[in-house]
Each structure stands twice: as structure tokens, then as C-alpha cells.
């Protein structure tokens, strides 16, 4: 038996134990049976992001497509037979939606809209537009664990406040008479999976007749029933997204309690279909002589502007039937996901490092065995054996390599993040001032996480999904023994080496141009000549494209011809190579327009000159299947304004880096790949080529990881020096084979086990060129002899870095020079190698 089957068998036993709590839970076998056929998109993938969207089944798509193929559906606003057919379907679907939630159509209506957010906005606009004769403005109370889309309502309220559960309880339970307001909360938090009492709505109505409740049910309904059978205690408005229940169609709804609906009439705007009378007059109407009269029937009649998304509504009808055929009812789904969720929760909690330390902080006040207070969604951060945090971004990268799909970051829940990460308003603002933005890669700042990892289960999740996830946690995050590839294992045998390869990447993220052996190449403070001077930009977003998103870029091969001063670019798809002159002053550049692109390179905004000529953009667009063109970074002597701070070993330091990632030069030691490949070969993985590290200079160092101890490299021929700046942090871009553009998990997986320091994965060294002459340039060539000048370990300048904790090895982590990553800077209090 493999390790995995042992793990899965153990989890299966635990699951059976848990399922005793839930008599309807055990449909695992059923899902396993139909999953391959119904969800072929899941083949080989562990999908744990159902809280973002669950998945549609094959049979749903087949049913919708055959219906659309055989039936003629006209626009519902006409009166032709095809139009009436559409209207009839919409009417029927409306009732079916209400039945899904036990909502009596006599007392409830559903308004179709884009998504939950659009439903929330409809309510907000109506409240904000309450006519003056009944008093203007409204008070707003929102639960602290709310989605950003609920938080946004406060911009329209006269007075608003975020409440904890305790405060919300107190508010709904105390009497109040003369106010008018809206209270909103999630039925289930999109971040923590915590569930909040549906009874708040009824209690509020009883105690404060001037108040309304807006329930955000988007998180809950993914896996749970919502019961609106008691009209007197039901929320006034319920917002939800249908794609979160069925995976498809992309459609939302607002369920309105009809008795509370008149406030929605205050909405100012009217669109086609929502008025029963309208004139084209623009002076001020009076009450006696109106210019337009809103429809007065059910809320959907006066709230659905223009043509409803009728094909989607027809698809929704199929989605409801299909879902019930596959899963029975919501109660079953709820118990099934809850049992699996409990297993995730218990397994994470039970895991311990070799020293007994716990591996996880799960952010919830509740236990998943209480269905009413916790759903099958969990937010957490992982910890190492020394108690330090693992950045959620690194978890995301490794999970992606294992094809495990989860969500990380602030999760669109600012209150949840502030509460659980223990971030004060001041700390949030400080992070923002330091550059933190929603959705970026900064996971740890000033010693605290900026968000979390979230896993969430859905109707089609199985025990296997849970087992794959736990096995991933065991493989990478449970420390079992102390080990670290450290340099003292390999005492240096010599202090000289040779340059074995020189590469530049004229177009950022595209293939390397290897400098021919006989050719000396110019080197300057900003790096090697023509390295990353060009880039590709997406014509839609203006953003600089990278290989992570577009792996095929590896197949675009640039060639620099210094004789003819041209950059020629070839790729398999194009029959002819594209030629671009290197001399920027040539008149041929009449087609070069300056386009200010707020493109981002490692968080910096850059301005590039885009080539707008159609011939050029079409060449690249065809090659990649993406609308894009090439752009040039002005090769100004100052490197065009992007700098890296060099506090490390040079007092005066800003180094120009143009479009280069983080430093002017990247240098790797070919020998360091050997121990990595040795481990890979024992696991049967794909051996890696040194080209995946996309370095500029490859040397054959005396020993593996000798470069961790290098201070400077002196080139004998040109009498010039390269200064080392610190290790290079790696991401899963190194999994892209540079010859084929195919991805594999290696060498990232093995590297993460052997070369993780401070939670970051390192290989290679950043470097900069220092010229001993006044010209500020030099040249290097393959075969050049290199003298290694080592860091003086005895008098090691402690403020320049930290050492690997397992002994006095010299894996030096630069804790100050890494401008692109404050996380490295902040998290350096303790440096340790990962224990595996
Ligand atoms: C997903 C979600 C939303 C947002 O839904 P959209 O479809 O993006 O509008 C809001 N609240 C919760 C609780 C959610 O889970």
C-alpha cells in the first residue's frame, strides 16, 4: 500500500465515525460513481473552492444545450408565440426558485439580477432614495463578518455601524420605535464559514418595526437549505447567486417578502419594462401630472430593468431539475459536506510537528459538528514548528503545483480579516501605505498575515478530495525530522570557478538568448546588455504579460544580431521571423508610439513604448492566441527609473534594473541542481534542467550551494567584479520546461522541501556589476576565470542577513535588500530551514 492509500483508509474510518451524526450524509459512493462522467473537468484536480463557485454537471450543460437547440425563444417583451414561450418559462422558473426555499409565491417574489452584489445594490439604492416626505436617509447596521458587497452599502447610509454577533443579538432584542433602518448580515460567512441565526430577522421585526433585514445567503446556499416557510419571521430581502448553488447559470436573485416590498418602489431609476406609463418630458413632474408611472404589481415587475437574462433563467430551470436528480435535496448535500468538512477540520487540528507544535490556526468560534453555526468552509493559516507563520501565498503556489485549487488572501471580507488577523485600523492603513493592495501577493506584513487560506466543499466533493488535501498538508507542512541542505555539508575545494553559460532574455518572460561561446557580452550596472529590454503587453489590460499566466511565451525565441543591430524573433507558429531594429534612434521607428502603460513589474508601475503597427501586434497575437504586442522599455542610462535598493553591501545604493525582476543579474551555480535532481530521481519525478531558473550567468561552483557564501566574484579577464546581493525567491514559474512550455511539479516541489528559509523558497543569487574602471561597463564571456571572494563567516556582518538555524551554515537570507518583498524584510526575526 502506498502512503496515500494508508492515509485515505484512515480518513475513511474517521469519516464513517463522523457520518453517524448525519444520517443523510453518506452519498460518497454515489458521487464517486457519477463524478467522472458528470464532472470530467475535475479529472486529476482537487477542487476546494466551492465557496467561490461550485461546479456544473455535464448533464446540466447537455440538457440546456439540447433545449436551446430545439426551442425557439424570443425576447419576452414581445407577444409572438416564441416570445410567449419564453415568458411562460420565466414565470415557471420563478415559482420553482421560490419553492427551493419553501417560500410561498403568495408572500414572496424573486427578482432576477446579475449576482448577489447586484441584488444587494437594488436594496441599497431603494433605501437611499426614500422620498423626503417620509424622512430622508437611513441607518445601517452590518455584521462584522460580512462580504465587501454588504459593507459597501454604508456609503449610502446616513449612519452606519459594524456589529459583532453579540452586539447584533443585543440590537435585535431591544425595543426601538421611531427609527428607519436596514440591518444586513451573511447567513454564512464567505470567509470563515460561520453561520448566523436566521431568527435575527424575526426578532428585529418584532422589536423594531421601522427596521428591515437584508440577508446575504450566497455563502449558505452553496451547501445548505434555506427555509423561508414562516413569512412572519423571514428576512425582508434575501440576496443570492445561483452559480454558487448549481455552478451554472451565472445569475443572481433577490427574494423579496412582498409585505415589505413597498420600500423598493422608492428606487429612482426606471428601465424598460418597469413602467406602465412614460413620456419623454424633462421638466419637473408633479404628483398630479406624472411623467412616468412605475408598475405596481410584484417587485420583479418594477425592478427588473430591460430584458431579463432569459437564456440564463431557462438554464436555471434545468439546473434545479438536474441538481435534484443528482443529489436529492439540500439536506443531503448539507450533511454530506458537513461530514467532509468536519473531517478536514479534525484532521488539520490533529496534525502536529515533530516537536508537538500545532500546525494550524483555524479562524472560527464554532465547531463543524454544529450545523447551525458552522458550514463546510474554513479559513486558516499554517504555522511552522517554531511557531512562525507560513505565507498563504506560498501555500497557494505549492497547492497549484499539486493541482489543488483553493483560495487565499483577504477573501473580500475586511471585517473578518481585521478580527482574525488581529489587525487594527492603524495597522491596516500602515500595510496599505507600504503598498498592500487587495489581491496582491503580500501575505505576511509586520509579523501578521494579511489574509488566510480558505478551503470549501461542495455537493460533488468526495473523501478523495479531502484525502488529497490532507496528504498535501502532510507532505509539505508537517515537519517530521530536521534536515536542510546546508553548505557545510560541502566544504569548498577551490576558490575559483568558470562561467559556463551566459543568457539574456531580451523579451521579458520569453525564451532565453544564449550568448555564443566566442562572444564577449557587455555588462553594466543595470545588468547584461539587452536583457529584459522588451516585454509583451496585453492589448486589453495594458499589463506586462508573464510566463506564469502564458506559459507559451517560453516558445517565443528572440535572437540578437549585433552586426545588423536587429532583434529577430521566431516561433513555431509563424513562418517568418519578425525583425525589430535595436537602434532606437532609427527612422524605422515611426511606427513606434509611446503609450503610457500602468503596467506592473513586481509591484512597480512602468511606462513602456508599445509597438502599435498591426503587422507586429498580429505576429505576437497569433503566436500566443492572446491580443498583445511588444513594447520596449526605454534603454535610458538610468535604466528607465526602476531601481532596487541595495542596502546590503554598498552604502550608496540604488541600482537601476529596468524590466528585470528584482535585481540586475541572476547567477546560479550548476552544481546546486545536482542534490535537487538526486532527490527528484528517488521520487520518480521529472529531472530538471538548469534553464528553468532563467539565470543570466551559470557557473560551475566548487560545491552545491557554495554560492550562499559568496561575497563577490572577480572576473580575471576584464578586471571587473560582480557583487552578490542575496538569494532569489522562487515561485512555480520554475515548473515550466523552457524547451516545451509544459508544466510539471518539479523542481518546485523538491526545492520547497530542501531550500525553504523563512517560509520562502530560494535558489540562485541576485547580483550586481561593479566596474573597477571609470567606463561603468565591462564584458564577460563563456570560459572566463572567476575568483570567489567568500563572506567572512567569523566576523559575519550580522545585520546583513541571517543564517539557517540548523547549525552555522551560511544560507544568508538578505533581510533588508529585497525591496519588492517587505514580507521577507519583516519576517526575518527567525530564520530556519524547513524540516521534512
Ligand atoms: C460569493 C459571495 C458574495 C458575492 O457574490 P457575487 O456573486 O460575487 O455577487 C457575497 N456574499 C457572500 C457571503 C458570498 O459568499
UniProtKB/TrEMBL annotation:
Keyword annotations for this protein?
Molybdenum cofactor biosynthesis, Pyridoxal phosphate, Transferase
Q: Does this entry carry the keyword Transmembrane helix? A: no
Q: Which residues are in the MOSC domain?
A: 604-789
Q: Which InterPro entries match?
A: Aminotrans_V_dom, MoCF_Sase_C, MoCo_sulfurase, MOCOS_middle, PyrdxlP-dep_Trfase, PyrdxlP-dep_Trfase_major, PyrdxlP-dep_Trfase_small, Pyrv_Knase-like_insert_dom_sf
**A Pfam family hit:** MOSC
One biological process term in Gene Ontology = Mo-molybdopterin cofactor biosynthetic process
Family indicated by similarity: Belongs to the class-V pyridoxal-phosphate-dependent aminotransferase family. MOCOS subfamily.
Q: What is its EC number?
A: 2.8.1.9
Quote the catalytic residue positions. Answer: 412
Q: List, separated by semicolons, the cofactors it needs.
A: pyridoxal 5'-phosphate
Instruction: Kindly list the positions at which N6-(pyridoxal phosphate)lysine occurs in this protein.
Output: 244
**Which of the seven top EC classes does this enzyme belong to?**
transferase
- Please identify the protein, giving its name as recorded: Molybdenum cofactor sulfurase
Please provide, alphabetically and separated by semicolons, the GO molecular function terms listed in this UniProt record. Answer: lyase activity; molybdenum cofactor sulfurtransferase activity; molybdenum ion binding; pyridoxal phosphate binding
* Reactions catalysed according to its record: Mo-molybdopterin + L-cysteine + AH2 = thio-Mo-molybdopterin + L-alanine + A + H2O
Q: Which PROSITE patterns match?
A: MOSC
Described purpose of this protein according to its UniProt entry:
Sulfurates the molybdenum cofactor. Sulfation of molybdenum is essential for xanthine dehydrogenase (XDH) and aldehyde oxidase (ADO) enzymes in which molybdenum cofactor is liganded by 1 oxygen and 1 sulfur atom in active form.
The root-end lineage is: Eukaryota, Fungi, Dikarya, Ascomycota, Pezizomycotina
Amino acid at each position: 500500500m502506498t502512503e496515500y492509500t494508508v492515509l485515505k483508509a484512515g480518513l475513511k474510518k474517521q469519516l464513517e465515525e463522523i457520518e453517524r451524526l448525519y444520517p443523510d450524509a453518506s452519498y460518497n459512493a454515489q458521487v464517486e460513481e457519477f463524478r467522472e462522467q458528470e464532472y470530467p473537468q475535475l479529472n486529476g484536480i482537487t477542487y476546494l473552492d466551492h465557496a467561490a463557485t461550485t461546479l456544473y454537471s455535464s448533464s446540466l450543460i447537455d440538457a440546456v444545450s439540447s433545449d436551446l437547440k430545439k426551442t425557439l425563444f424570443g425576447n419576452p417583451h414581445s407577444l409572438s408565440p416564441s416570445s410567449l414561450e419564453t415568458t411562460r418559462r420565466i414565470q415557471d422558473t420563478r415559482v420553482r426558485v421560490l419553492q427551493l426555499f419553501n417560500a410561498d409565491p403568495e408572500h414572496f417574489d424573486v427578482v432576477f439580477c446579475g449576482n448577489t452584489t447586484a441584488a444587494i445594490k437594488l436594496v441599497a439604492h431603494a433605501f437611499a432614495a426614500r422620498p423626503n416626505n417620509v424622512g430622508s436617509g437611513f441607518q445601517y447596521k452590518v455584521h462584522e463578518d460580512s462580504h465587501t458587497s454588504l459593507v459597501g452599502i454604508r456609503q449610502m447610509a446616513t449612519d452606519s455601524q459594524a456589529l459583532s454577533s453579540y452586539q447584533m443579538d443585543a440590537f435585535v432584542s431591544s425595543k426601538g420605535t421611531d427609527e428607519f433602518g436596514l440591518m444586513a448580515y451573511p447567513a454564512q460567512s464567505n470567509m470563515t464559514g460561520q453561520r448566523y441565526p436566521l431568527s435575527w430577522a424575526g426578532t428585529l421585526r418584532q422589536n423594531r418595526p421601522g427596521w428591515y433585514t437584508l440577508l446575504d445567503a450566497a455563502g449558505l446556499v452553496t451547501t445548505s437549505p434555506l427555509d423561508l416557510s414562516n413569512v412572519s419571521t423571514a428576512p425582508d430581502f434575501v440576496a443570492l447567486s445561483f452559480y454558487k448553488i448549481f455552478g451554472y447559470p451565472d445569475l443572481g436573485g433577490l427574494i423579496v417578502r412582498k409585505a415589505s416590498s413597498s420600500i423598493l418602489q422608492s428606487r429612482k431609476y426606471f428601465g424598460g419594462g418597469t413602467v406602465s406609463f412614460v413620456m419623454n418630458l424633462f421638466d419637473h413632474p408633479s404628483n398630479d401630472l406624472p411623467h412616468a408611472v412605475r408598475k405596481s404589481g410584484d417587485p420583479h415587475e418594477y425592478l427588473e430593468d430591460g430584458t431579463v437574462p432569459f437564456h440564463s433563467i431557462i438554464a436555471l430551470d434545468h439546473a434545479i431539475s438536474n441538481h435534484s436528480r443528482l443529489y436529492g435535496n439540500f439536506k443531503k448535500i448539507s450533511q454530506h459536506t458537513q461530514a467532509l468538512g468536519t473531517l478536514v477540520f479534525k484532521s488539520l487540528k490533529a496534525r502536529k510537528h515533530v516537536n508537538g507544535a500545532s500546525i494550524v490556526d483555524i479562524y472560527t468560534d464554532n465547531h463543524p459538528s454544529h450545523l447551525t453555526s458552522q458550514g463546510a468552509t474554513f479559513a486558516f493559516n499554517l504555522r511552522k514548528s517554531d511557531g512562525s507563520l507560513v505565507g498563504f501565498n506560498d501555500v497557494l503556489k505549492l497547492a497549484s503545483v499539486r493541482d489543488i485549487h483553493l483560495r487565499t488572501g483577504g477573501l473580500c471580507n475586511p471585517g473578518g480579516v481585521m478580527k482574525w488577523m488581529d489587525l487594527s485600523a492603524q495597522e491596516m492603513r500602515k500595510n496599505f501605505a507600504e503598498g498592500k493592495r487587495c489581491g496582491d501577493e503580500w501575505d505576511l506584513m509586520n509579523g501578521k498575515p494579511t489574509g488566510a487560506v480558505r478551503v470549501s466543499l461542495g455537493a460533488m466533493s468526495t473523501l478523495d478530495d479531502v484525502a488529497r488535501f490532507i496528504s498535501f498538508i502532510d507532505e509539505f507542512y508537517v515537519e517530521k525530522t530536521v534536515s536542510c541542505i546546508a553548505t557545510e555539508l560541502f566544504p569548498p575545494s577551490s576558490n575559483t570557478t568558470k562561467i559556463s553559460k551566459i543568457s539574456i532574455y531580451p523579451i521579458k518572460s520569453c525564451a532565453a538568448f544564449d550568448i555564443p561561446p566566442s562572444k564577449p557580452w557587455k555588462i553594466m550596472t543595470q545588468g547584461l546588455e539587452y536583457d529584459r529590454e522588451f516585454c509583451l503587453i496585453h492589448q486589453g489590460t495594458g499589463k506586462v504579460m508573464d510566463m506564469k499566466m502564458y506559459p507559451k511565451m517560453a516558445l517565443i525565441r528572440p535572437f540578437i544580431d549585433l552586426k545588423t543591430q536587429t532583434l529577430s524573433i521566431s516561433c513555431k507558429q509563424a513562418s517568418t521571423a519578425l525583425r525589430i531594429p535595436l537602434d532606437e534612434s532609427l527612422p524605422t521607428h515611426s511606427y513606434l508610439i509611446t503609450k503610457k502603460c500602468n503596467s506592473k513589474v513586481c509591484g512597480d508601475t512602468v511606462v513602456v513604448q508599445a509597438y502599435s503597427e498591426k503587422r507586429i501586434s498580429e505576429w505576437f497575437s497569433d503566436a500566443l492566441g492572446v491580443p498583445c504586442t511588444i513594447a520596449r522599455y526605454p534603454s535610458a542610462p538610468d535604466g528607465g527609473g526602476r531601481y532596487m535598493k541595495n542596502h546590503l553591501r554598498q552604502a550608496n545604493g540604488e541600482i537601476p534594473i529596468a524590466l528585470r525582476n528584482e535585481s540586475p543579474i541572476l547567477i546560479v551555480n550548476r552544481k546546486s541542481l545536482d542534490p535537487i535532481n538526486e532527490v527528484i530521481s528517488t521520487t520518480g519525478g521529472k529531472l530538471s534542467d538548469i534553464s528553468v531558473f532563467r539565470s543570466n550567468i551559470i557557473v560551475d561552483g566548487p560545491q552545491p550551494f557554495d554560492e550562499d557564501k559568496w561575497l563577490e566574484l572577480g572576473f580575471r579577464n576584464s578586471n571587473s567584479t560582480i557583487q552578490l546581493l542575496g538569494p532569489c525567491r522562487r515561485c512555480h514559474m520554475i515548473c515550466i520546461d523552457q524547451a516545451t512550455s509544459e508544466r510539471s511539479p518539479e523542481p518546485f516541489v523538491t526545492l520547497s522541501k530542501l531550500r525553504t528559509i523563512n517560509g520562502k523558497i530560494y535558489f540562485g543569487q541576485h547580483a550586481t556589476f561593479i566596474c573597477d574602471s571609470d567606463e561603468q561597463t565591462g564584458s564577460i564571456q563563456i570560459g572566463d576565470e572567476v575568483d570567489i571572494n567568500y563572506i567572512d563567516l567569523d566576523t559575519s556582518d550580522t545585520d546583513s542577513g541571517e543564517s539557517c538555524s540548523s547549525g552555522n551554515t551560511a544560507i544568508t537570507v538578505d533581510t533588508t535588500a529585497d525591496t519588492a518583498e517587505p514580507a521577507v524584510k519583516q519576517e526575518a526575526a527567525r530564520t530556519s530551514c524547513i524540516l521534512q
